[in-house]
Specification:
Low-confidence stretches: none
Strand content: under 5%
Number of strands: 0
Order of helices and strands: H
Number of helices: 1
Radius of gyration: 33 Å
Shape: rod-shaped
Mean pLDDT: 94
Largest sheet: none
Structural class: mainly alpha
Helix content: over 70%
Length: 78
């Protein structure tokens, strides 16, 4: 078995460095994608909260109307 030359070693180091650069670029791309997803999720969450507030408001209004209806019914019965 022959020993690798300095040129061979340096070429392998350069290959590893290029691979790391590619990984770095992929990580930067993933960060950007995750940031976009986080922003979209926050918008969706805000929309859901608004809709839940509206549903809660409608439920409270309906409950109040039902209580009034029950009171009217009791009053009519006697």
């Amino acid at each position: 078995m022959t020993k690798p030359t300095l040129e061979t070693i340096l070429a392998r180091v350069n290959d590893v460095a290029e691979g790391l650069t590619a990984v770095r670029d992929d990580v930067i791309s993933l960060r950007t994608d995750f940031g976009s997803l986080r922003n979209e999720f926050q918008l969706l969450r805000a929309e859901i909260e608004i809709r839940l507030d509206r549903i809660e408001g409608m439920t409270n209004q309906t409950r109040a109307e039902m209580l009034t209806l029950r009171a009217d019914f009791r009053e009519a019965r006697g």
